[in-house]
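Notes to self, Nucleotidyltransferase family protein:
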Amino acid sequence: MTGTHAYSYPTQAVVLAGGQGSRLRPYTDDRPKPMVEIPGTGTPIIGHQLAWLAAEGVTDAVVSCGHLAEVLQDWLVSADLPLRVTTVVEQEPLGRGGGLKYAAGSLPHPDRPWYATNGDIWTRFSLREMAAFHHERDATATLALARPRIPWGAVETDEFGHVLDFIESPPSPYLINAGVYVFSADFAGLLPERGDHERTTFPRLARERRLAGYPLPHGAYWRAIDTAKDLTEAAKELAG
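result:
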């Protein structure tokens, strides 16, 4: 795509929703992780995600199911969704990279860029700005980067070992993969048939300087829903 053409933002996305969610039991005993409801909203995590994607201009989403796929599929059929949704189910475990490649095969426009998100991420920021960042850097793949809060209190000391301060849940000094991506059309062809792209495709693209990292804007909401405590915190933050 040359600079003379206006950049068209992605309108298609893959949601990876096949996780077991073992740390969220008993919530996940009878439903896959993305079907767990944020307390007080009456809507599962994936419902919030699909609404966010639609608000960001996505018209078509492919949801990759695995664990208890039929529960998720039944909900998608009955829900009033703001975009078109297709589901795919891995018949055998393909790994994260293989699963992503398999899901990408059902995107309506394989020759155009696409978003992807993990099914357990609860976030709000401008995907269009991230896509523009991706395009400006001519990247093959761009991952959103978050700076989560450390769940413990930190202790600040001076060089002599005197305690200077206590800081409750400070931001991590490291950026982490936030589980939201922008991919160029040719990315799917670089994914493994099975296995983990974060150990194969991503390191290769990084060596070739074709992998970009988009820091989430200051104040953007982001949370990975891994435990019951995360659900409680998300509900609190929503209420606040």
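- Residues 1-5 have pLDDT under 50 and may be disordered.
- DSSP finds six helices and eleven strands in the chain.
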